[in-house]
Design goal:
Number of helices: 12
Largest sheet: 6 strands, mixed
CATH superfamily of the largest domain: Ribonuclease Z/Hydroxyacylglutathione hydrolase-like
Shape: elongated
């Protein structure tokens, strides 16, 4: 088996493949690491055949949907997943076949209703069901401490004690473990009595993950995260530096349109001299009246540089092929000591 582990903060992803056929699967990929996964696969001579989520993630953005689109391969999840983009729904006791390598599915509800583990040769990919030194939480949507008890004590912990544990998260930085080590030393497994375990899980009082609402929305629907929209917009537009814009603002004969896409109150509090106001929320509705010439060079800016990147990408999609975005925003313009004009320009 060819095996690669990728850490993104506490999140853990795995690239596994058959060392004979070089067919591979990517398990629990994270959205910001797509290029890294592709580079790893290329380095190892692997062809990714499946992208797999061990469960619906609530604390980071899954790359399964985007990777499946790019590579034209199926998304694999447990059959209890409600995500509409899953191509291959799989159940307990079934397998994903990668040449001579088999990924054996164990349905392990508890952390989520659609959680599953994957057993492959000398290791088990446990998702968030069993972590090194902990277990997955049960206070998120579809979590169930009773079900987690059954999944752990009646299934996962009955596997070969020598199997390496490959979790989807590093708990307190720990990722290396075995089933036997977890049985012996995992503090959350000390409560072998069902009632005691359930009570312990219900009293953990853990903080909610950052971006939980957005992560659940995108991971359950296949929609895009804000960061993904921004990255796609940034990849489709050129940028101009603050210094270059300043020199053009100071050149009277330069006919580039400088477009402030903030709201009116922000514009009137202080804007780049000569800039026109066209708030991002009104762009599509007002662009024909405000910008009748699609051949003009247009630079969009906002406060921090995010909204203006989206605005420039939208302008390009609408036919303004010379639209660019400011590399930075009004905040960095002010901090650089460049001129600011309050009120409305004539």
């Amino acid at each position: 088996m060819i095996f690669e582990q990728v850490s993104t903060g506490d999140c853990q992803s795995y690239l596994v493949g058959c060392d004979e056929t070089h067919a591979a699967a990517l398990i629990d990929p994270e959205l910001t690491r797509i290029d890294h996964y592709l580079a790893l696969a290329s380095r190892n001579g692997l062809r990714i055949r499946y992208v797999i989520d061990t469960h619906t993630h609530a604390d980071h953005f899954s790359a399964t949907c985007e990777m499946a689109r790019q590579l034209e391969v199926p998304v694999v999840m447990h059959r209890r997943s409600r995500a509409p983009f899953v191509d291959m729904k799989i159940g307990d006791g079934e397998m994903v076949v990668l040449g001579r390598l088999r990924l054996q599915v164990i349905h392990v509800p508890g952390h989520t209703g659609d959680s599953m583990c994957l057993v492959a040769e000398d290791r088990v990919f446990t998702g968030d069901t069993l972590l090194a030194g902990a277990t997955g939480r049960t206070d998120l949507p579809t979590g169930d401490p009773e079900a987690l008890y059954d999944s752990l004590f009646n299934h996962v912990l009955k596997l070969d004690p020598g199997l390496k544990v490959c979790p989807a998260h590093a708990y307190k930085g720990r990722v290396q473990s075995t089933i036997g080590q977890e049985l012996a030393g995992n503090p959350r497994l000390k409560a072998r009595d069902r009632a005691a375990f359930v009570e312990m899980m219900r009293s953990l009082n853990l903080t909610m993950p950052t971006h939980i609402t957005e992560a659940l929305r995108t991971n359950m629907s296949g929609g895009k995260a804000v960061a993904q929209l921004l990255a796609e917009a940034a990849a489709s537009v050129p940028f101009m530096s603050l210094a270059e814009l300043k020199s053009r603002v100071e050149t009277p004969e330069d006919d580039m349109i400088v477009l402030d896409v903030r709201e009116r109150d922000a514009y009137e509090a202080g804007h780049i001299p000569g800039a026109r106001l066209l708030p991002r929320g009104q762009l599509e509705l007002c662009v024909n009246q405000e910008l009748p010439d699609p051949t003009k060079r247009i630079l969009a800016y906002c406060e921090l540089g995010y909204i203006s990147t989206l605005a420039a990408a939208t302008l390009r999609e609408m036919g303004f092929l010379h639209a660019v975005a400011l590399d930075g925003g009004m905040k960095t313009w002010r901090e650089a000591g460049y001129p600011v004009r309050p009120g409305r320009d004539p």
